[in-house]
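Task card 7
Instruction: Convert sequence to structure tokens.
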Amino acid sequence: MDLDAVRALLDRQLRRAAPPDSAAAQVERTGGVVRQTGGPTDWNGILWSELTEATADAAIAAQVRHFAALDREFEWTVYAHDRPADLAARLRAAGFQPEPAETLMVAEVAGLPKEVELPPDVRLLPVTDPAGVELLVRVHEEVFGAPGGRLRDRLLARLAADPDALALTVVMAADEPVSGARLEWVPGTDFAGLWGGGTLSAWRGRGIYRALIAHRARLAAERGVRYLRVDASDQSRPILRRLGFAELSTATPYLHRP
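Output:
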């Protein structure tokens, strides 16, 4: 891969010209930023910015006012290649709180393994209804230690409005969910996103995470997707690198709460 070219393509398709990710959300360009504004359970935040040292503070203040008027928490993810160079410091000064940094990684779907090899005592379960969403949310809460209410509402809304926009999967050991992940299509782009991959600690090291990557790569290939992107944690980055993913940038989410 030409990493510079892929980075530029991703910035153009998934940030500067990103489509809204739900029927209730709106994407607009204003004041040097591209933002998505949605309902309380939607993702709200800044997708892209073209700021300078002279314009950054005013743009940040304008976005804080916009989302505060709606009583919305919102996210501004800062990529290592974003400008100005001190954007993160300016966000902190404006009251944003950083979340753990992740690594933006991308792979060509054609080069990824697609054979799903699971331990003999587990199985894949496609999620297509509220009962399956509950299983996926249980995994999310146990693995990431975060409340799953907003994720539950978002997934239920998307399944009801456009079930073909995402593929949700849980890994079951008998009747217990032990891992889960989702694949989200981005219409009109060359990319699909890998999200939420997590496995209960007692089940790690058995190839489940790798199997979920292969499963989603196969689904992406069937839909003609060229690239998969993922925001990788320190734990998943080595596995993804071995599978063929390359690092494009680092990404640090900054949250602002009303």
